[in-house]
């Protein structure tokens, strides 16, 4: 087994918060998300030789995490929900939010999206991946990701009854998720 480079270790550690956020969005459970991230890190560490230096480590890790999640789901045969609202209750509204969009309402709307659309909008809008990177993570065409994100944005705007920026505020995160141009 070859030695793990310091840059790999540093990037791996730096990706943990993003991996955890994505894992929580998939599992809807903090403990299961932590287990999923841990399993992802173990697999990445064991397979570090297959990572191509100079490519996007974060995208590689997200792909491992996503694949591990779906493997676990196939084993369990069902999706875990946040039926008691524990995860929703832990969320907080970003202080720069000026509009009427309440994070609890947004979380509820996000949960109403089909899984493939929710995954795409989180990768693009919340995790900051490019369409190409998200397509690679999801194992589908770039056009498919663009379509899923577009449908997710339209559905979120419909669910939340958003017709313009004045209804949710000018912050950059809201703009990314809804697909508008914020200042």
From TrEMBL:
InterPro entries (UniProt xref): RNA_pol_sigma-70-like (IPR039425), RNA_pol_sigma-70_dom (IPR014284), RNA_pol_sigma70_ECF_CS (IPR000838), RNA_pol_sigma70_r2 (IPR007627), RNA_pol_sigma70_r4_t2 (IPR013249), RNA_pol_sigma_r2 (IPR013325), RNA_pol_sigma_r3/r4-like (IPR013324), WH-like_DNA-bd_sf (IPR036388)
According to the lineage, what is the superkingdom? Answer: Bacteria
Record's family?
Answer: Belongs to the sigma-70 factor family. ECF subfamily.
Q: Name one GO molecular function term.
A: DNA binding
Q: Can you tell me where the transmembrane regions are? A: none
Q: Which organism is it from?
A: Rhizobium loti (Mesorhizobium loti)
Entry's Pfam families? Sigma70_r2, Sigma70_r4_2
Keywords annotated in UniProt: DNA-binding, Sigma factor, Transcription, Transcription regulation
Name of the protein described by the UniProt record: RNA polymerase sigma factor
Q: Where is the RNA polymerase sigma-70 region domain?
A: 17-78
Residue stretches making up the RNA polymerase sigma factor 70 region 4 type domain: 106-156
Q: Indicate the secretion signal residues.
A: none
Question: Would the keyword Iron be found if you checked this record's keyword annotation?
Answer: no
Q: Which GO terms describe its biological process?
A: DNA-templated transcription initiation
């Amino acid at each position: 087994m070859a030695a793990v480079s310091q840059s790999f270790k540093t990037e791996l550690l730096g990706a943990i918060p993003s991996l955890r956020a994505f894992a929580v969005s998939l599992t809807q459970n903090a403990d299961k998300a932590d287990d999923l991230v841990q399993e992802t890190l173990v697999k990445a560490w064991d397979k570090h030789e297959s990572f191509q230096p100079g490519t996007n480590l974060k995208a590689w890790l997200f792909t491992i995490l996503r694949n591990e999640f779906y493997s676990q789901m196939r084993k369990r045969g069902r999706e875990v929900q946040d039926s008691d609202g524990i995860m929703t209750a832990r969320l907080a509204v970003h202080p720069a939010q000026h509009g009427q969009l309440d994070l609890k309402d947004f979380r509820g709307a996000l949960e109403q999206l089909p899984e493939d659309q929710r995954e795409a909008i989180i990768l693009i809008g919340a995790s900051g991946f490019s369409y190409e990177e998200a397509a690679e993570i999801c194992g589908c065409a770039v056009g498919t990701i663009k379509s899923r994100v577009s449908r997710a944005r339209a559905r979120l705007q419909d669910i939340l009854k958003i017709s313009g920026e004045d209804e949710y505020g000018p912050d950059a995160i809201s703009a990314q998720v809804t697909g508008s141009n914020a200042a």
